[in-house]
Write a structure and sequence with these properties.
heterodimer, A: about 375 residues, alpha+beta, Rossmann fold, 2 domains, six-stranded mixed β-sheet, globular, B: alpha+beta, OB fold (Dihydrolipoamide Acetyltransferase, E2P), five-stranded antiparallel β-sheet, 8 helices, elongated
Chain lengths: ~375, ~375
C-alpha cells in the first residue's frame, strides 16, 4: 500500500458569483497518477492551479505529506516557488530565445545550483525524454512534440515531488499525441513520480491514470480507477462523458433488490431487465437507459428463450476500414453500433440486439429533456 | 458501361512554382459518390475548384455529362453558373441576412424561375434535409448542423447533375459529424445523385464513398472501392494514410507463386505471407512487413506454431471499450493490437501473436 502524498479538502474557488470549484476533495498517493477529467469549464484547471499555487482557494485546505500548504481558514499560503512542484502547460511555455539546454537549465540556475551539477542534471533529464542529441538546438527549431518534451524535461530537472500536467498533449496532432501518451506513461512508471494530470480527453485520461476524477460544473462526480469508472459509473454524467452510450427512454415497471425492469416505448413495446440501477429511481418513474455498445451482440433474429432482446431496424451500414458502423433505429431512438467487418447484415434488415443485464444502466430522466 | 457525369483528362494547375494538380485524370459515374482523399496540400480542393469553375486549369480538359466544358487547348472555359453543379462548402457560405427559405431560393431566383415554382422547389428541398419547419427562421439562429443542411438544400434545389462537397462536415462536432455522414449517404442514395466529395478524413471517405481517389502531391495515388484500398493498398502512402499499420523488418527467405517466406530477427521460423501485394521482391532482399492491428490474433499461452511470434507485454492501455496492447517481439520489433475489456494482462507477461498469412503484406524496405 503506497503512502498518502497530497490531500485536498473541500476546495472552493469563486470567480464572481459562480463557484468554479465547489467543495472538491481528493487524495493522491505517492507514485500515482490522478487525473482530473471533464468538459471545458468543469473546474479542473482551476483545481490544478490551486494545487500549483497560482490561485488561492476561498475555502478548503491542501496538505502535502501531513504539512498544510494552503488553508483558507488558517490563512496559510505557501507560494508556488516553495512548493517543489514541476508544471507542464498546454502551450509548452518554452523560451524561444534559448537553446534546449538553456531552457531546461533555467530552473536550476534560479535555484543557484553549481555549473557542473547543472550540466550533469540537464544532460540526464534530456536523455530521459529522448532529446539527448539536441542540447544546443534553438527551441524555435523544434517540432511541437519536441517542444513538449523540453517542457517536460524542464519540469523534471529539479526533481520535483509532484508533476502537474495541464493538457500537455492537446496541441499535438493525433499521431504524435498517441505516441506521447505511451511515452509519458512509461516515463512516469520508470521515475515512479506522483502526477496530477488535467485533460478533457477521455482516452488520455483512461490510459494514463491510476485514479480518475470525473468533474462537471465545479464538482467531482466520481473518483476511481479508470476501469471502475467505465464499468460502474455512479452518475449519468459520468456514463455519458466516458465512452459511447446508447440511450433509450422508458418507465420503471418493477424494482426489486438486485434488479429492475423498464418498459421501453417503441415499435414493439418491450421490457428490459437491468442490474445497474441508480439509487434515486422509484417504481413508475420515467427513466433513461444507457447501454455500452460494445457489450451488445447483434443477431439476425430473436433467440428463443432469451430476454433483453431489442428488435431494431438496420438503416445503414457504413464501412470504416477496421469496422462496420451500423446505424440502427428503435422507435424514435437512433444509435450506432460498431461491428467487425466480417458480419454479413444488409441495409434495411431487421436485427435484434441482445443486452446483458449487467451492461444496462438505469438513470432518472432529467426534467426538461425533450422527448 | 456506366454513364459518366464528369470526366477530367490530364488536368494541371500551378500556383507560381507550385504544381497543385499534376496531369490528373478522373471519371465520376452516374449515381456514385467519388471522393478525393488526402492530407492538406495534396491538391484535392484545387481539383474540386477546377471542376466547379472557381479556378482555370493550365492544361487539360473537363467534360460534364459527355460535353466539353473546359479545354485549355481550345480556349474553352464554361463559367461556374453555366455548369449544372451544386456546391457545399466547409464554411456553409450562407447569407446571414436571409431566412432559411430565402437562402435556398437564391439560386432559383438567379435562374429567373417563377415565384410559385420557387416556393414549391424550396419546400421540397427543405423537406429532404428535414428542415421543413424552419423555413422562416433567420440563418444565424440555426445550429451548425442545421446550417450545413441549409447549404445542402441550396445545392440540391435546382437538381444539379453533380453535387460538389468540400469538407462539408469539418466544422461540425464529432457526434453531429457521424449523424450527418449517414444522412448524406441515405439522401444521396434516395435521390440517386452523383457527388464529388473532398475530405482529409479517412473515416468520412471510406464510409460515404463508392470509390475513393487517394491523392498525394497533386496526383491520384490509387483509385478504388474503400474496402479494396484498405485491404490492397498499392503504395506505402496509401497503406499508411488509411487506417493504422504496423511495420516490421525482415528478409525474404523463400518465395513462390503463392507465398513469400520472411525471416525476422528473433523468430523461431519463417513467417509465411500470401504473395499478393508485393511485386518484385527477391530472395535475400530486405523487406517491410505490414499488418493492421485488428488483424493480429493474440494467443495468451505462448506458442511456436505457424506464423506465431513471441513477445512480452510492454504496456496495456485501457481505452474504455477495449485494451490497446503494446508487445515487444523477441526480435525487437514493436506491435500493438486490441483485446476486449475483461482480458486484463500484466506488463512483462510473455504471450504470442499470430499473423494470418493473408493479412500480412510484403513491401520493399
Amino acid at each position: 500500500m503506497s503512502r498518502l502524498f497530497l490531500q485536498a479538502r473541500n476546495l472552493v474557488k469563486r470567480f464572481g458569483p459562480t463557484a468554479a470549484v465547489n467543495n472538491v476533495s481528493f487524495e493522491v498517493k505517492k507514485g500515482e497518477v490522478l487525473t482530473l477529467l471533464g468538459p471545458s469549464g468543469c473546474g479542473k484547471t482551476t483545481t490544478l492551479r490551486m494545487v500549483a499555487g497560482f490561485e488561492q482557494p476561498d475555502e478548503g485546505e491542501i496538505e502535502i505529506e501531513n504539512t498544510v500548504i494552503v488553508s483558507a481558514a488558517k490563512r496559510i499560503f505557501v507560494p508556488p516557488e516553495k512548493r517543489r512542484m514541476g508544471m507542464v502547460f498546454q502551450s509548452y511555455a518554452v523560451w524561444p530565445h534559448m537553446t534546449v539546454f538553456e531552457n531546461v537549465a533555467y530552473p536550476l540556475k534560479r535555484r543557484g545550483v553549481k555549473k557542473a551539477a547543472i550540466q550533469e542534471k540537464v544532460s540526464q533529464v534530456l536523455e530521459l525524454v529522448g532529446l539527448g542529441k539536441m542540447e544546443s538546438r534553438p527551441a524555435t527549431l523544434l517540432s511541437g512534440g519536441q517542444q513538449q518534451r523540453v517542457a517536460l524535461a524542464r519540469a523534471l530537472v529539479y526533481s520535483p515531488q509532484i508533476l502537474l500536467l495541464d493538457e500537455p498533449l492537446s496541441n499535438l496532432d493525433a499521431k504524435l499525441r498517441e505516441q506521447m501518451r505511451v511515452e509519458l506513461k512509461e516515463l512516469q512508471k520508470r521515475l515512479s513520480i506522483t502526477v496530477i494530470f488535467v485533460t478533457h480527453d477521455q482516452i488520455e485520461a483512461m490510459t494514463l491514470s491510476d485514479q480518475l476524477a470525473v468533474m462537471n460544473l465545479g464538482e467531482i462526480h466520481q473518483i476511481a480507477p479508470p476501469r471502475e469508472i467505465y464499468e460502474r459509473p455512479r452518475t449519468r454524467f459520468v456514463q455519458e462523458f466516458i465512452g459511447r452510450v446508447i440511450w433509450l427512454e422508458g418507465r420503471l415497471a418493477e424494482l426489486a433488490p438486485g434488479g429492475a425492469s423498464v418498459e421501453i416505448a417503441g415499435d414493439e413495446p418491450l421490457s428490459i431487465f437491468s442490474r445497474r440501477i441508480s439509487e434515486d429511481v422509484k417504481k413508475g418513474d420515467d427513466v433513461i437507459v444507457g447501454i455500452r455498445p460494445e457489450s451488445i451482440t447483434l443477431a439476425k433474429e430473436k433467440i428463443a428463450g432469451e430476454s433483453n432482446q431489442l428488435p431494431c431496424l438496420l438503416e445503414k451500414r457504413l464501412f470504416l476500414g477496421d469496422r462496420i458502423e451500423c446505424h440502427l433505429r428503435y422507435g424514435n431512438a437512433r444509435f450506432t453500433l460498431a461491428t467487425p467487418i466480417t458480419e454479413s447484415f444488409s441495409n434495411g434488415q431487421k436485427v435484434c440486439l441482445c443486452l446483458p443485464p449487467d451492461s444496462v444502466f438505469i438513470w432518472t430522466k432529467p426534467t426538461g429533456l425533450t422527448e | 458501361m456506366e454513364e459518366v457525369v464528369l470526366k477530367l483528362a490530364a488536368v494541371t494547375k500551378a500556383f507560381g512554382p507550385l504544381k497543385a494538380v499534376r496531369s490528373l485524370s478522373l471519371e465520376v459515374r452516374k449515381g456514385e459518390i467519388a471522393t478525393l482523399l488526402g492530407p492538406s496540400g495534396c491538391g484535392k480542393t484545387t481539383t474540386l475548384r477546377l471542376v466547379a469553375g472557381l479556378e482555370e486549369p493550365d492544361e487539360g480538359e473537363i467534360f460534364e455529362a459527355g460535353k466539353l466544358i473546359v479545354s485549355v487547348a481550345q480556349g474553352l472555359f464554361t463559367p461556374p453558373y453555366k455548369r449544372n453543379m451544386g456546391m457545399v462548402f466547409q464554411s456553409y457560405a450562407l447569407w446571414p441576412n436571409m431566412t432559411v427559405a430565402q437562402n435556398v431560393a437564391f439560386p432559383l431566383e438567379l435562374r429567373g424561375l417563377a415565384s410559385k415554382i420557387i416556393r414549391e422547389k424550396v419546400r421540397g428541398a427543405l423537406d429532404l434535409v428535414n428542415l421543413g419547419e424552419l423555413e422562416q427562421r433567420p440563418v444565424p439562429l440555426l445550429s451548425g448542423g442545421q446550417q450545413q443542411r441549409v447549404a445542402l438544400a441550396r445545392a440540391l434545389v435546382y437538381e444539379p447533375d453533380l453535387l460538389l462537397l468540400d469538407e462539408p462536415f469539418s466544422n461540425l462536432d464529432a457526434k453531429l459529424r457521424e449523424q450527418m455522414r449517414v444522412e448524406v449517404k441515405l439522401l444521396q442514395k434516395k435521390l440517386g445523385i452523383s457527388a464529388l466529395f473532398v475530405t482529409h478524413d479517412q473515416i468520412e471517405a471510406m464510409s460515404l464513398s463508392d470509390r475513393v481517389a487517394v491523392m498525394h502531391d497533386g496526383d491520384i495515388e490509387q483509385l478504388g472501392a474503400p474496402l479494396e484500398l484498405y485491404e490492397r493498398p498499392r503504395t506505402p502512402f496509401v497503406r499508411d494514410f488509411l487506417g493504422k499499420t504496423i511495420i516490421l523488418q525482415g528478409t525474404v527467405a523463400a518465395k513462390d507463386q503463392e507465398r513469400i517466406a520472411v525471416q525476422m530477427a528473433g523468430a523461431p521460423r519463417h513467417l509465411s505471407c500470401l504473395n499478393h501485394a508485393s511485386p518484385g521482391v527477391a530472395v535475400g532482399q530486405k523487406v517491410c512487413l505490414a499488418i493492421r492491428p485488428e488483424d493480429i490474433a493474440a494467443q495468451l499461452s505462448p506458442s511456436d506454431g505457424e506464423n506465431a511470434l513471441r513477445g512480452s507485454i510492454e504496456t496495456c492501455l485501457f481505452v474504455g471499450d477495449h485494451y490497446e496492447v503494446h508487445l515487444r517481439l523477441d526480435g525487437g520489433g514493436l506491435v500493438f493490437f486490441y483485446l476486449p475489456r475483461g482480458a486484463d494482462l500484466e506488463e512483462g507477461r510473455v504471450i504470442s501473436v499470430k499473423f494470418p498469412p493473408e493479412r500480412v503484406s510484403v513491401w520493399p524496405a
